[in-house]
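Hello again, I could really use a second opinion on something today. I've been staring at a protein lately and its backbone has me curious. Please have a think about how the structure follows from the sequence. I owe you a coffee for this, so here goes:
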Amino acid sequence: MSMFGGKSAVGTTFGFFVFSSLFCAQAFAWSISGTVQSSTGEPLSGVMINSFNHAGVSAKTDNVGHFSIDENSAVLSGVADLDMKVRYANQVLSIENVHASIFKVSAIDALGKIVYQRSQHYVFGNVSLDFSKVSAHGVKFIRINIDGTNNSYMLTGSGSLFKDGAPLPNFSFRKEGYEAVIYQMSQENETGVSIIMNPASSDVESSSSAGWTNPTSNSQNGTFTPPDVPTTCAGKTVTPGDHNMSVVVDGKTRTFIMHVPSAYNGSRPVPMVVDYHPIGGSGAGQMADYGGSTYKSKTDPEGVISLYPDGTDGVSPMGAGWNVGPCCSRDDDVKFSREMIKKVEEIACINPRKIYATGFSMGGGMSNHVACNMSDVFAAVAPAAMDLNRTNSAVCYPVRPISVIMFRGSQDNVCPYAGGESFMRDGLDFLGAENNFKFWAEKDGCTGNPATNSSGCQEYSNCNGGAKVVLCTDKNGANGTGNGHDQGNGSIGWPFLKQFELK
């Protein structure tokens, strides 16, 4: 069954562009298959498989312990304008669901030279591009530009495309009665992977959310003066593009990407969004449309600048993470976030009263964390797929009420909806989605009961300082995400965030 049926709204063809082609063969950015068995050699069925750093990946082993997962297992946001799919097979590039006023594709060799380039206006639908005539030029990269936003892909030796900046997935394998196993892919296509699971130790017990008491809220006890908004953008020299930047924090160089959209012209102060990646991820991976943020496509047309910081590793076997508890970094990520924002404010015209945070998985934990510790900087936050943890981050004293919108999947197998101890036994002990919701309602002095808002989410709206606290629980995809370990929904999150400012 073809994924590329239907007609493009543009009836003409040009150069090597042919619209509405049908394909059976496809190549994926990554794929993995193998078996799971016990330490005694018994095949294990029903093993839950999830990814920490690729949203929406969920699978189970079959009755003989076999599993097979590929890029199509990753469910993107479900939002219409993020549904563009890119495939490459038999020297043909096929792109589904293009919506572009200006559409440009470039073929680039290993030295960075553009060997072929074509563009067209007003492309809506599915596109097929035959690269057989230019393959002799040694095409190594393919760049797709949609209305000024570039997406770059590397053509791998196996003939598949790999999204620039998108990390390979890491997976958790879990089954009741067995110790969890973490596996990190090292190649884009892996077969015959063998996962061995040991019986769980009988002396390990999971924590329960019962008995936890929310610390007394004193969010009104701090002294807070909102920053001044610049009256001129003179001296702010940043230009549109993706800028690799760094700051030195406690003697260590920390890196991040500053994404300046084409709609930014430096004529007025603009909002800014800090988007934190999942564990094992990177700023570049979170920025990438594939498996990445659902906010950039919403904020770019408004000229909003977005930052994609890199976490640090050395603590967790799953790679770079954030210091949101005993796991998964020893660096001061709050200080890093403050220094990063200061540096950007020096060169870009930012409205300091309209700075926001979001993030996925451990990045969601980090956006919860900065709401606790940087309420003097962030006007509102939108964490997804992770809550605060009882060990340390659930004890905090914001200097002002801060608005929070949380996105959680009811069947999340990585950060359980009900909360409790992390299955990695890394010291993280999650509040759970509903306790996280109540935590922020108490911190913000909200009164009354939550009501269902127009997005189908639960909302406390009678809170101190005009704040709002929202929980979007996805049980069946109704909120535009999945009901597992998924990114948030920018179509809901961004309109919520931008209504708030520091005051």
Summary: The first helix runs from residue 283 to 287.
